[in-house]
Amino acid sequence: MSMTLVVQILLGILLVYFAIIWVHDLAKNRDKLNDGNVFVAGGIGFVTNFFDALGIGSYAPTTMFLKLTKFLKSDKLLPGTLTIACSIPVLAEAFLFITSVKVSGVTLLSLVIASTVGSFLGSKFISRFDEKKIQIIMGFALILTAILMFLSNTGFLAALGSGNKATALVGWKLVVGIIGNFILGALMTAGIGLYAPCMAMIYLLGLTPIAAFPIMMASCAALMPVASREFIRKGDYNRIATIGITIGGVVGVFIAVKFVKSLNIKVLTWLVIIVVTYTAITMLVQGFRHAPEEDTPIEH
Prior knowledge:
The chain is mostly helical. It has 11 helices and no strands. 71% of the residues lie in helices and 0% in strands. α1 (3-28) runs parallel beside α9, α7 runs antiparallel to α8 and α8 crosses α11.
């Protein structure tokens, strides 16, 4: 049995597990399915998950649209709504990229397990760290990475990531990748998104940029269904929003995956640079903001 197949089986089990507990809750509370417009939620899900499949992340833009449309009666419902609504679209991303993008099964499984273990342990330790300091450090690190990628893609640094074509990490690079994704999984519990840092790490370790997509999406897909369980159990989410965003999100993901696969490596690298830069600026703005803020949901 190939390692890639093992990852697919694990994600399939998580999909079935999530679907059972979510649909059971929806059926049990079918008389409460009147808390919003499902078509508005579907539009939000389509747009935000389309960009999620490009590596932008869906939590922050979904939060913005839910607030603009005043979809939620209380911000208390936001973390659960986001986590539950985005679980199936992210699982779809993972399945589609795993089956359509060539990447070593050993590399994929190792990094997915590392991020999952890191997230589990991070929930106990890393989440206690000062979030703003982490954001500032990660922001500057991503800015530096984006600059190096820019110089490489324009020919100024011919050696760095030049013609990245590798689809597997071996030797010390695999060890660094495992440690790196373990740390990124842990940092998710402190509110630091995994997508952009994972993209940067994959690039710097010499893998083809598109290899980041199945790795980072499978990593998050393994985490979100499990995280949804507590929100579903407590009922702390907007049910109509999750239905609409899930349906619209899956459609958006299918279209976006075809778009990403059609890009050549140089254009894809520019996309990665834009995503990394955007995430870095966002982290620095949040990190240097002095005013106390409410807890915000984790961005993947």
